[in-house]
Each structure stands twice: as structure tokens, then as C-alpha cells.
Amino acid sequence: MPAKNSKVSVVSKPAMAINEHVVEIISDSGEGAQKCGQSFASIAAKMGNGIWTVEIIPAEIQPPARSIEGASGNRIRLAADRVTNGGDKANLMVAFNEQVLLGRLHADELADGAIILLESKWRTDPNAAVAKSYSNVYERLVADGFKPIEVPMETECLKLVADARRGKNMFVLGLLCSIYSLDMQLARDQISTIFKKKSAKIISANHSLLEAGYDWAEANLDIKFKIPTTPAKEPHIVINGNTALGLGVMASGMEVCAMYPITPATSASHYLSDVFKNVGGVVHQAEDEIAACAFAIGSSYAGKCAVTITSGPGYSLKQECIGLAVMAEIPLVVINVQRGGPSTGQPTKPEQGDMLTAVFGSHGDAPKVVMAATDIEDCFYSVITARRIAETFNTVVVLLSDAGLATAQQPCPRPEFSEDWLAPPIDQSPVEDGRLAYDWQLQTGRVNRIIPGQPNGMHTVTGLAHDRRSCVAYNLTVNKEGVRNRSLKLAALQKTLKTPPVFGDDTGELLVVGWGSTKGAIEEAVQRVRNDGYSVSSLHLRFIQPMASGIKEILQRFDKVLCVENNWSDDMEDDLITEDNRRYSNLAWLLRARSLVDIDCWGEVGEQPIKPGTVERVIRDRLAPRAINKTAPNRAAAGRH
Amino acid sequence: MAVRATDLLLSSGDEEHTLEEYEGRMPRWCTGCGDLAILAAVQKLCRDKQLNREKVVFVSGIGCSSRFPHYMGTYGFHGLHGRALPVAEGVKMRRPDLDVFVNTGDGDCCSIGAAHWMHATRYNMNMTVMMHDNNIYGLTKKQASPTSPKGTRSNTTPRGSDLDAFDPLAATLGMSNLSFVAQAVDWIPELLYKIIKQGYEHRGFSFIRILQRCPEFMPNRFEACVQDPDKLLLLTHKNGIELSPGLAKVYKNQKEHDPLDLVGAQEIAGTSERVPVGILYRNDSVPCYEDLRQPTELITPQLIRKGLETELDKFTIWPSD
Fold first, then answer.
1. Domain A16-226, CATH 3.40.920.10 — does that match?
2. Beta carbons of B319 and A235 less than 8 Å apart
3. A374: CB partners within 8 A, 6+ apart
4. Are A340 and A347 in contact (CB under 8 A)?
5. DSSP H stretches of helix in B125-187
6. Topology alike, domains A237-421 and A502-623
7. Which of A99, A163, A329, A641 could tie A394 with a disulfide, CB 3.0–4.6 Å?
8. Nearest CA of chain A to the CA of B265: how many Å?
9. Who among B9, B297, B318 is closest to A428 (CB)?
10. Angle at the Cα of B269 (from B266 to B272), degrees rounded to 5?
């Protein structure tokens, strides 16, 4: 669609049909690349493209301008069909300066022959060092075989606004609308929406910038793509994983969220703080992570099942409280949006490093349910499931997400609210004579909880070992009864879990096993190698503890089993690493112990979610015989048992 | 509100509650322990107020003091060391119908849980907090606590503790959003009862430090005060504690102190050579956090549906046809 008032007044150039592209827009922090990227993705999603967006976030609020570590932006995977992950390297990159671009180049994020659109103002920067840096990077790009296109963003924007720094992002949005043949009316609507709290003047200025970008591209660029669209027949919502968690909390009927600020979990609480009150809920920002968890436990104890939302370091701090909730059998939902660890680690980077902490955390035997959301939609439904399990079994349910899911956006079918998602009103009826506080059921270990306010049910819960009356147990056999019953509950829950489906054939040469947020990337990689005729399947776990039955049998049907995870595992190619001392990835440890299958693993502790191309390479590598000189007799022999 | 509606269901019968109804398990404190006096005063208060036992929750941390809930015939929550206050806040947040009491000790409150104490004061949720201060760790068998006087010999300070004692009264009187601070002693039951009662009647965070004798590990700590009434300073006021003629006769050191006078309270706490007993500060006009954060509408499935649908609308892409 030609832009209004276009001087060029061209009929759009013919567009090259492509199936998908990965686009990155990067700038200094504060220049609005995020907003540009999100808008671009929204417009494409509305037209019916599959999208997945990934935020590129600097660790600091105001990192130095024009610095590699300060790169801020958005990666958008745009496809004809639904996509389940952020895809591979970028096919097109828009950079607001050469330094942020350099960062992406160092990170090896550009595909061969990627199109680069680079702000050209730096070439003539009055600071000679800046101009030199720019031309050096430009030369390097050319030497590397790229054909960078210089775009006079600043010059063009200054024709319309006084401060180009605040307008460039919408100019770039116009560029991208032209390049990807997006609907300009949708783009104008998008701008009206995102600036709806601003004045008409500001909206109008941004519309002009958008159109200027579009016109400039039409007049000066000879690249134009069209990715086929399939307009949705059902309503979809476009949200990120943390918003999905927040919506899930609202939909689960929980009334209290107690939290303490921590990256990358906080945006879920930000969202809830804004809207939770509309369903009667309250977000309590506690004085620390421990208090947040204790507050949630108090609220749950009083009959209002509560959630606490945190990330790695906060999760560590909550361990004693989690043990208390397990011991006293108080329902509690703990959401851990994992980040790079240990310690403060990499706050804005994704990692799946907390699974074993979640499973084994807190001292003593503290059995708790551990779930991992597999995609953005699953973040929503998992909270609802977690609340229900917590209240059915009066125990702690840990829900793991991660920094990748937290900020990634994807369209998902709009949920249809069901009253079944909510807990029934709290029981305040008198307790029948003879019923004890912990009437552990013989078969399931379950207890029907008594809530303060119920006449005839008075008792004192305690973190000390206790008997059925909740009296402190000074007798070892009494303690054993409690330990057994708390463990039994997980077995009872396990009986209700379905064996997860195998992606691909039920038997074959290699089974890739993953959990949580890597589902999309793993399945895409498996599909690619299957298309090439490889005998590879995958299995993805959502329930980590308890783990559904039938998994061992699946593992045994494959010649090799490989866990692929976004966490550390020693590489057998390292000189010092042997079968004897290798530290496995989280799930591999657990699955090896559960199944006695000799499972191999591959992990990545990187800056980004695992890419399908990386998994694909690992699979191909594992299927090819590797030359390893070390004595490792059974290393690759996860044979048929 | 859903919770309040259930109150109707729970209205008690006409029978009078007896003292025995408020008794729980048999206390396992040592003979002569000051906690026993606190327990007696609290049980009497519950009886005098005719509290419905099922509507009362005693929350505690860890330590000798924190066994308290087990000895009450009400609901109780005996949790983690230092974390009684955040648990109690969570209980109260959406259950304003429950009476919440907290029992904590000098280690629990002033050491491992000190941060929670400061913030609980600021939240000002309606609960009665008794800080049993025996100046020593008892349950772990005699280690110096923050309130142990300098020179206290204990298992961790065999040559005497090095630091001056931490002053919980001065500390709490410096905290923000303060609404009730009092000090009591376990050996004057009448005053102990009156002070806890005023704490209970105050709507807000009522912090009561109770000097409590530990005959096992600090046998002589308060002995001088017990023996010599002159070592105490009784705070009296028509808006605070009014002494019975009997007490007034024994305890001659009295000071007229208006509980609204914060500066006066700080002076008494910080400078008095005598142990002040009574209401140091009370301000009834501080809003309670749970009131500020109450839902504005009755929470029903319809409300949740409406709220959720409104949110989903914000993110929805509708089919174009």
C-alpha cells in the first residue's frame, strides 16, 4: 500500500515470497527499538503471520551509549505458519549505531548474507573517534561479505521532529512495513494504540515518521518480501510469558500474591499490581523474599491460597519457608522465573538451572510438586493447574518458567474462562467430632485441611515433627508416619498424570528429551532432521516431580537418549572429564536415577534461549560417530534394555 | 464480602466461654518461667473478651516463647525462627474476621527476624504482638541474645558479652508509622493483663515487650526489679494504664505519661534509669494495611470472569471477518 502524501507515489515493487525471516532491531537503551520491534510483531500477528519475539535487554538501566553491552532491542521471528521459538540467526538487522551491531556480530547472531540496515549519521560524526569506529565496523562488515545499507535515519527524522532520538523507532517501523509488505493502516492503528495516553499531536508526529520511513524504503531500497499470512479464524491473544503467568494467577482464583522485586520475575508482579485488584486480588510487596513467602504461607493457611513469584536468588532465600509449607501441609504456589546462576549470575539471561534445586531444595525430605511451563500459553494454564494441585494435596507446587519465556511474545488461542479453574469458597463449617488435623488417608496420604474459623477444628500447625493431632512428636514412629504420608501424596498425584507423548516415532535411533521452555526449539530441530530421514524423536516433560509413568519405557525404546537443556553439563571432550566425574545436566541426573538408562546430555549456558539450529547441530553430531580417545565403554550405549 | 458473610454461620451460642476452653496442651516451660504468667494473662483476656476460639489465631516463631500457641485452645501457627510476623500478616490480610496474636522472643524478634519487625510496625496490621524478652536464648540452651546486658556470661560469650544490650523499646519508638508500644513485666500480673488488654483493644499493630524471667539460664536477671519496686517506673494516664490503689501503694515511682506523646515516650525509653512499665505510645489514627488493601467488590466467579475478560481483550487479535 503506498503511503499517503508519498512524494514517490510508487506502486509497490514486486515482493519476493519467503516463508520466514528473523528480524532484529537494536539500539542504545532508551531509543525505542523495543517498542518498534513489538509493534512490528503485533502488526504482522494481526495480519496472520506466526511470530515469536525475544527481547534483547541490557543488564543496566542506563548503560553507556554506543556500547556493545548496552544493546537493547527486539528479535522477531516472522513466519507463514505458527512458530514455537525464536528461530535461528537474524536475516535482517536494523542497527541504530555500529557498536550495538558489533555486539550482535560478536555473538554470531547474523545469518550468512543477512541484510543490515545501519544508521549512517555516525559516518560524519564530529567526534573523529566515533566516525572512525563507524567506518571500521562498516569495512569489517563488507570484508565479512555483508552488504550493509546505510540509512540516514537521523536526517530523515529531523525533517519531521526536533529530537530524532525519540522518533527514529517509528521511522524504522515504516521501513520494515515497506520491506515486509505490512498493512500500513494496521501500523497507523498500532501507533494510535501505543500512544493512546499521549496527545493527538504526538500521535500525528509518529504517524508522519512511520510514513516517512515507509516512503524512504519504497524510494531507496530494492528489497521487498512477502511472507504469506493465514488470518486467524479464532481469537488469539499476543502476550509474553510473564503476562501469561499474571493472567493465570487471576484466572486461578488466587487472591494473594506476595513478592519482592527481582529480575526477570518482576514484570509478572508489575502486571498483577496493575490489574489484580479488578478481580479482588492483592499484590503485597514484602520487605524481603523470605517475608514474601511467609506472608503467602500465612494467607494460604487462613484459606486464601497464595502465590509468591521470584527468580533464582529469591528462590534460594525461600527454601526454609518452602520446607515449612511442605511440613505443615499448607498449599502454596511458588513461581520461579529462572535466570542465569549461581548467585546473582546473569539476571536478564535465560537458564534452566534451578530444576534440581526445585526438586531437592529445602533441607530434609521435603517432597513438593515441580512443574515447568513449556511455552507461553502453558505459563497461563500451569498456574491454574498449580493452584488446584496445591489445594488438592495441601502442598507446595513450584512452577518453573525462565527469562526466555518471560519476555518472549507469541499469539496463543484466547482462553475461555471456566469456573472450574477457581477454588470453592473456603470451608467454615464446623469440624465433625473426632476428626484430627492430619487425618492422613491410608491410600493417598492426603489430608482434608482444617481452616481457621472452622468451629471444633482448633489446633496448632507446626514445622516440628507432629502427629495426627498436630501435636509435637517426641516419638520417632510418629515422625515416620508424617514423612511417609507427605511423600505418598506425590505418588498419588503421579497416578493421575498422563505419559507425555513422543514427538516423532515411538522408537528409533535417538530420543531427545527436554523440559520447560525448550520445547519449541527441540521439536523444530527434531522435525528438521526427521525431514532429512534421521530416526530421531523427542520427549518433553512438563511435570518434573512427580514424573508421569511410562517414561522409562519410552527411553528404553531408543538406541540413544540425549537430554538437551539450557543449563550446565560437563563436556566429555574436555580432557579432565570422564564418566567418573562428569556432571550431567539437571534433567539427565534425574532421568538417569529414575530410569537407569545411560542418558547422555548436552547443555548450553548462554545468553539466549537455545536455538533450533543449535539443537539440530547437536543431534547431527551425536548421530555421527565421534572420535574420543578416552576410555568410556558405555558412554554412548543407552542400549535397548 | 465472602468472609464476612460466613460470620453469620459462626455466631456462637449463648453459653459463656470458660477459662478452661482457652487452654491447649500442658505447658512444657520450666518451673518459674515468666511465659506461664503471660499465658495466664492471655487466657484470662480471651475469656473476659469471650472470644470465639475458632476465630483466634496465635502465630509464633521459634524459641521458648514460640511454644505459646500449642498451649492455647485456639488455632495456632508455630512456624519458623524469626518469621512469625510475615506469617501473621498473611493470615490477617484477607481474614479480618480473625483475631491475630503473635508470640515472639528477643532472639526471634530482635535478631533473626528484626527486619520483619520494623516492616510489620510500618504495615500496622491489626494484631497483638507479645515479645517475650528474657535477655537470653533459652531453647538452644543459653547463648547471649541481642538484649543480653553487656558482660552476660553464656555459652557463646564465656568471658562475658562484649556489647551493650540492644534496646527494643528505643528501637521500636523510632520506627515509622508506629501505632502502639508498651512494656510489661511478667511478675506484676495485674499490669501484665491490663497492658495486653489495651494492646488487644487497640486497632493496629500493638507491640508489647514483656520482660520475662528465665529461672534456668538468667536466674538473677530481673531479681532486683522483682524485689525492689523502686526500680520500676509506672506510666499512668487516663488514656493509658490507671493503677489500682493496691499497686499504687507498692509502686511509688509513677509518671503521668500521655500515650500520644511520642517524644516523651522516646525520652522515657532512652533515658530512664528505671524500667518503664505501661503504655509508651498509642496512636489510634494510623490506618491498617489490611483495610487499605481490602477488595472493593465481593469476589465472585462473575467478578473474576469480568476482570479476566477485560484483560484478555487488551491482548486479543480478533478474526478479521
1. yes
2. yes
3. A515, A516, A517, A519, A540, A542
4. yes
5. 168-172
6. yes
7. A329
8. 27
9. B9
10. 120
Q: Which of A151, A209, A245 lies closest to A35 in space, CA to CA?
A: A209
- Does the pLDDT of residue A251 top 50, yes or no? yes
The pLDDT, as a whole number, for residue B207 is 98
For chain B, the distance separating the N- and C-terminal CA atoms, rounded to the nearest angstrom, is 42
Q: Are B70 and A460 inside 8 Å of each other by CB?
A: yes
Complex ipTM > 0.90: yes
Residue labelled with grid coordinates 527481547? A55
B291–A contact, CB cutoff 8 A: no
The Cα–Cα gap between B102 and B62 comes to: 12
Q: Do B312 and A284 touch (CB under 8 A)?
A: no
Smallest Cα–Cα separation from A383: which of B308, B95, B89, B93? B308
Strand-pairing partners, residue A93, are A24, A116
Give the chain A residue nearest B71 (alpha carbons): A460
Q: CA nearest A302 in B: which residue?
A: B91
**What is the domain partition of chain A in residue ranges?**
16-226, 237-421, 427-496, 502-623
In chain B, where the domains are located: 17-295
Q: Which residues in chain B are contacts of A290 at CB distance < 8 A?
A: 83, 86
Q: How many CB pairs under 8 A join A and B?
A: 212
Task: Pull the grid cell for residue A585.
Answer: 545436566
Three-state DSSP string of A370-431: EEECCCHHHHHHHHHHHHHHHHHHCCEEEEEEEHHHHHCEEEEECCCCCHHHCCCCCCCCCC
Q: Which of 1.10.8.420, 3.90.650.10, 3.40.50.2000, 3.40.50.970 is the CATH number of A237-421?
A: 3.40.50.970
Given a cut of 60, is residue A631 above it in pLDDT? no
Check B304 against A238: CB less than 8 A apart: no
Q: How far apart are CA B48 and CA B43, in angstroms?
A: 9
Query: Amino acid identity, residue B135?
Result: N
The percentage of chain A sitting over the pLDDT mark of 70, rounded to a whole number, equals: 95
The angle formed by the CA atoms of residues A294, A295 and A300, to the nearest 5 degrees, is: 95
Window 118-147 of B, Cβ < 8 Å to A: 118-119
Three-class DSSP category at A524: helix
Q: Which residues of A touch B78 (CB under 8 A)?
A: 460-464
Over the stretch A281-333, which tens digit does the pLDDT of each residue have? 999 999 999 999 999 999 999 999 999 999 999 999 999 999 999 999 999 99
Contact assignment for A301 to B87 by CB distance below 8 Å = yes
CATH number for region A502-623: 3.40.50.920
Calpha distance B105→B276 (Å, rounded) = 19
Confidence grade of residue A608 (pLDDT, cut at 50, 70, 90): confident
Q: Indicate the burial class of A128 (C-beta count within 10 angstroms; 0-12, 13-18, 19 or more).
A: exposed
Q: Which fold has domain B17-295?
A: Rossmann fold (3.40.50)
Cis peptide bond N-terminal to A264, omega within 30: yes
Q: Residues B269-298: pLDDT tens digits?
A: 987 789 999 999 999 999 999 999 999 999
Query: Does the CB of B76 have a partner CB in chain A at under 8 Å?
Result: yes
Residue A238: closest CA among A527, A518, A37, A419: A37
pLDDT tens per residue, range A539-585: 999 999 999 999 999 999 999 999 999 999 999 999 999 999 999 99
| Upper half-sphere CA count for residue B120 (Cβ side, 13 Å) | 32
